[in-house]
Amino acid sequence: MKRLLDKYINKMVRQGLAEEDGIHFLGLDAELVCSRPSDASNAELSGVFDLMNINSLLYAEPAEPYRSIIGFLTEQAEDKLTPSDCETRTFLHDIPVIEELKASEIFNVLSHRKAAIIRGKGIVSYGTVSPEQAFVSFSSVCFSTFVKFFSDIMFLSEDSREKNIPFDERTIRSFRDIVKKLSPDNMSENPVVPHIPEQEDEVYASLVKTGKALVDNRLVDSYFGNISYTHREKIYISQTGSSLDELETCIDSVPLDGSSSAGITSSSELSAHIGIYKATGKKAIIHGHPKFTVIQSMSCRQEGCDLSTCYKTCRVPRFIDNIPVVSGEIGTGPTGLAHTVPESMAGRNAAIVYGHGIFAAGDDDFSEPFDVIRTIEQKCRKEYFLKLHHLL
Q1: Quick one: 369 exposed, middle or buried, by C-beta within 10 A (0-12, 13-18, 19+)?
Q2: CA–CA separation, 39 vs 28, rounded Å?
Q3: Which of 38, 240, 296, 333 has the most CB atoms within 10 Å of its CB?
Q4: Residue 192 pLDDT exceeds 70
Q5: What CATH topology corresponds to 2-152?
Q6: Cβ burial, residue 168 (10 Å; 0-12/13-18/19+)
Q7: Do 2-152 and 200-389 share a fold?
Q8: Per residue in 64-93, pLDDT tens?
Q9: Higher pLDDT residue, 9 or 187?
Q10: Residue 355 and residue 350: Cα distance in Å, rounded?
Q11: pLDDT tens across 345-366, in order?
């Protein structure tokens, strides 16, 4: 268990989610193991194991800029945050906010949610089977609050300009301070070298290398997003719930003719990947969740639209750098992205899904779609700050 805790602590640090000395990770095996020496926090956290049937509990102060973002958002929140991105909607629902690091308070919220924010302190999450679950939930809170903060400021800016609603000085100061804490955009080169896989083992190797590159360049967190390659009438795709930086044993080979049930463990977006391949003929497909691409995809406030259903029902044509922005919820239902994305990608190499992320495809290898995702994220980030330059 200690080895597993250390593994996910290292991931948190490497992905810029938290600093090692601010992480408390507890795991229950034959006995309770703590990542840090016993202190008052560990005493309260240990008590949660008496109240919940869990095998791991993670409490950490997030690294910047997440720390300041969460601090700003929770100053105004009463008992929960409700981001509107796809990751929150489908995975977290909402993010409870509690006042104290107490076992009873933590139990009250984690009994019906995957993670919670302790006001002014940090994020707490848990796993029932593996510490990976706690890590994933923590990462999702960081992603969702980042998207919420910057999209909220974007909407406030639009209201200020169009409806003459003034910004309050505290919001402007916080925005400026948080922007200074952002990691620099340093993706100057494409780390995915052009290579057309000819044998099955080369297909697997390409997926593994590209998955790691996506996580290392923070174009997706390790758990969300998916990747596929079509080769000799089979689609090779990351499994549902797999970590993109650990795909060595988490790739399914699914016959395109549906003659096998191998796809039962494949990504939930297998149907979208097959649809994209059939619509475009492109073999290499990446689905990522780059933050500013997600934020910019939500920059639409059409008069008369129901914003609560925009993500699945909007049909207003929009584009970001000639890439269509489409609605679509996860799955194969009538408004599912399995329908909207392939249709929008006919004759194109990418599509952006409202509040969700981007699908990009390449003819023969992953270099092209990786470069598309990387370039669009850079452009979305640049365009975002051009729109809000008056606040900086």
Answers
A1: buried
A2: 17
A3: 296
A4: yes
A5: L-fuculose-1-phosphate Aldolase (3.40.225)
A6: exposed
A7: yes
A8: 999 999 999 999 888 999 887 776 777 778
A9: 9
A10: 15
A11: 999 999 999 999 999 999 999 9
The residue ranges of every structural domain in the chain are 2-152, 200-389
SS3 labels along the chain: CHHHHHHHHHHHHHCCCEEEEEEEEEEECCCEEECCCCCHHHHHHHHHCCCCCCCEEEEEEECCCHHHHHHHHHHHCCCEECCCCHHHHHHHCCEEEECCCCHHHHHHHHCCCCEEEECCCEEEEEECCCHHHHHHHHHHHHHHHHHHHHHHHHHHHHHHHHHCCCCCHHHHHHHHHHHHCCCCCCCCCCCCCCCCCCCHHHHHHHHHHHHHHHHHCCCCCCCCCEEEEEECCEEEEEECCCCCCCCCCCEEEEECCCCCCHHHHECCCHHHHHHHHHHHCCCEEEEECCHHHHHHHCCCCCCCCCCCCHHHHCCCCEEECCEEEECCECCCCCCEHHHHHHHHHCCCCEEEECCCEEEEEECCCCHHHHHHHHHHHHHHHHHHHHHCHHHC
**Are the C-beta atoms of 97 and 73 separated by less than 8 Å?**
no
The Cα 244–Cα 139 span in angstroms is: 14
Distance from C-alpha of 356 to C-alpha of 390, rounded to nearest angstrom: 27
- Segment 153-171 mean pLDDT: 86
pLDDT in tens, 231-255: 999 999 999 888 999 999 999 999 9
